[in-house]
Design brief:
- The complex is a heterodimer of chains A (406) and B (137).
- Chain A is 39% helix and 13% strand.
- By secondary structure, chain A is α/β, with parallel strands linked by helices.
- In chain A, the strands form 3 sheets. A 7-stranded mixed β-sheet of chain A has the order 2-8-7-6-5-3-4, sandwiched between helices. A 4-stranded antiparallel β-sheet of chain A has the order 9-10-13-12. A two-stranded parallel sheet of chain A has the order 1-11.
- With 137 residues, chain B is of the alpha+beta class.
- Chain B has 5 helices and 3 strands; from the N terminus they run αβββαααα.
- Chain B has helices at 5-12, 64-77, 82-86, 90-97, 104-125; strands at 27-34, 39-47, 53-61.
- Chain B has a 3-stranded antiparallel β-sheet with strand order 1-2-3.
- The chains are: A alpha/beta (406), B alpha+beta (137).
- Chains A and B meet through helix 9, helix 11 and helix 13 of A and strand 1, strand 2, strand 3, helix 2 and helix 5 of B.
Chain lengths: 406, 137
């Protein structure tokens, strides 16, 4: 068995591009390089045709009309556009927005910006399993609420929210519903009509497409969503997002979306099986391993676990042949552990001990077996070195110790 | 973030991991830090009849720099008298391990652990403690 090291297991951060995607993109850099907005020659028409095809493929994945897909530079821009664009357009209707504590920073920080513009924002604390329910959203609604933004699936813990119920609730109250679909799009079945979605952010590089291109789904009818632009200019994308289209990027995005749609079912089963076996191995081989987030309602490739008494950053240092992410942001000056895990009520200690394993299209069973074995080895080594583990073994209750904060 | 070679070396080959008998009169134990902050260090020294540290052990919950800081501290402690050990400064640890600014707190914690361990020993021996460094357990 020969494995290419380090093994990439961070598919929720980004994905390698599928070669089938790259092949389809290549001609659009050199031969069919036209500006999709050029109306006077074939270069422009061919580029426009390529963009339209991409738009259609992406729309198909979520049951949308191609005209409802607005291309952006990525999901961060889409999130900004959705929140700020809706706020700007609908501010006379009300100034209250609902989101959750565990949204991506592109949502949280946009919401914080809106607070400085005079909006009130409710940040829902999710359940312990990381889920935000329709009931929680309903309880947060006021007469002033104009927008609810709840992510489809969380990037750290992979938990899938009950989007359909939340969407239906919002529709019944005539409140717009945006979902950051970055981690769910192409991985789990989604339909903007069945799920009552009015706006949805998506990104190409999370689905084996290129970086630097994303989209915002904006509903055209029942209700027609109006959106003030953030980026003004040539009036591209129905005036909602000016700027010359990234034609090759859109082509790649379209192909990537199509592949995900075609392979979603089998790939979902394959990843779920590998992930669950991985989890079982860890839990059987080690004492005290905690799964972060709902056990089954999570995207197929995500496993987020805490290994108590072991600090995440040192664990990752030991797993030098594996590319994974720690929920602990100890590398930043803030020393703050994952805000997602903290919001779910995981103590700081467990938040500091968490690792996110992200499996994807090119992950093999051999790789998972290798990573599982290494993880068990390193956790055991770090626990042998952990004063906390020793104290617990001596019967000391760590929660009763008067720690000196520093 | 890239770690310095010395940090990686201490992480891969930590010196003096383990525990000494904390109930022994000749052993001083310093446990400092907090799990919520992501680092807890336990440092122990064993002092012989000449007042010299003849053994030192550590266990650390924390990042690579925290492990390296405490591992290095145990190396430096061996062979020192109480007074000499008291003089070990966190800045010396920073320099030796090339710690970046965000990891300076690891060296501070190691210095605290040393001082707490020395005070624990002094208390057991009925010698006046120095400063307010104290072990949490």
């Amino acid at each position: 068995m020969s494995l290419k090291l380090p093994i990439y297991m961070d598919y929720q951060a980004t994905t390698p591009m599928d070669l089938r995607v790259l092949e389809e993109m290549l001609p659009y850099f050199t031969d069919t390089f036209g500006n999709a907005a050029s109306r006077n020659h074939s270069y422009g028409w061919e580029a426009e045709k390529a963009v339209d095809d991409g738009r259609e493929r992406i729309a198909n994945v979520i049951g949308a009309d191609p005209r409802e897909i607005i291309f952006t530079s990525g999901a961060t821009e889409s999130d900004n556009m959705a929140l700020k664009g809706v706020a700007e357009t609908y501010k006379t209707k009300g100034k209250h927005i609902i989101t959750s504590m565990i949204e991506h920073k592109a949502i949280i920080d946009s919401a914080k910006r809106l607070e400085t513009w005079g909006f009130d924002v409710t940040y829902i604390t999710p359940r312990e399993d990381g889920m935000t329910t329709a009931k929680m959203v309903e309880e947060a609604m006021t007469d002033e609420t104009i927008l609810v933004s709840i992510m489809t699936a969380n990037n750290e813990i992979g938990v899938i929210n009950p989007i359909r119920e939340i969407g239906e609730l919002c529709r019944s109250k005539k409140i717009l519903f945006h979902t950051d679909g970055t981690q769910g799009f192409g991985k789990i079945p989604l339909d903007v009509n069945d799920d009552f979605i009015d706006l949805m952010s998506i990104s190409a590089h999370k689905i084996y497409g290129p970086k630097g291109v994303g989209a915002l789904y904006v509903r055209r009818r029942k209700p027609r969503v109006r959106l003030a632009a953030i980026i003004d200019g040539g009036g591209h994308e129905r005036g909602m997002r000016s700027g010359t289209l990234n034609v090759s990027g859109v082509v790649g995005f379209g192909k990537a979306a199509e592949l995900c749609q075609e392979e979603m079912k089998e790939e979902g089963i394959r990843l779920t099986n590998m992930r669950d076996k991985f989890k079982a191995t860890l839990m059987e081989s080690l004492e005290e391993v905690y799964l972060n987030g709902h056990e089954t309602l999570r995207i197929p490739g995500n496993l987020n676990v805490s290994f108590p008494y072991v600090e995440g950053e040192s664990l990752i240092m030991g797993l030098k042949d594996v590319a994974v992410s720690s929920g602990s942001a100890c590398t930043s000056a803030s020393l703050e552990p994952s805000y997602v895990l903290k919001a779910m009520g995981r103590g700081d200690e467990l938040a500091h001990s968490s690792i996110r394993f992200g499996l994807g299209r090119f992950t093999t069973q051999d790789e998972v077996d290798f990573v599982a074995e290494k993880t068990v080895e390193v956790v055991n080594r770090m626990r042998d070195m952990s004063p906390l583990y020793e104290m617990v073994k001596e019967g000391i209750d760590l929660s009763k110790v008067e720690w000196a904060q520093h | 973030m890239a770690y310095s070679e010395k940090v990686v070396d201490h992480y891969n080959n930590p010196r003096n991991v383990g525990s000494l008998d904390k109930s022994a009169d000749t052993v001083g134990t310093g446990i400092v830090g907090a799990p919520e902050c992501g680092d807890v260090m336990k440092l122990q020294v064993k002092i012989n009849s000449d007042g010299v540290i003849d053994d030192a052990k550590f266990k650390t919950f924390g990042c690579g720099s925290a492990i390296a800081s405490s591992s290095l501290a145990t190396e430096w402690l061996k062979g020192k008298t109480l007074d000499e050990a008291q003089e070990i400064k966190n800045t010396e640890i920073v320099e030796e391990l090339n710690l970046p600014p965000v990891k300076i707190h690891c060296s501070v914690l190691a210095e605290d652990a040393i001082k707490a361990a020395l005070n624990d020993y002094r208390e057991k021996q009925g010698i006046p403690t120095v400063g307010n460094a104290k072990s949490v357990v």
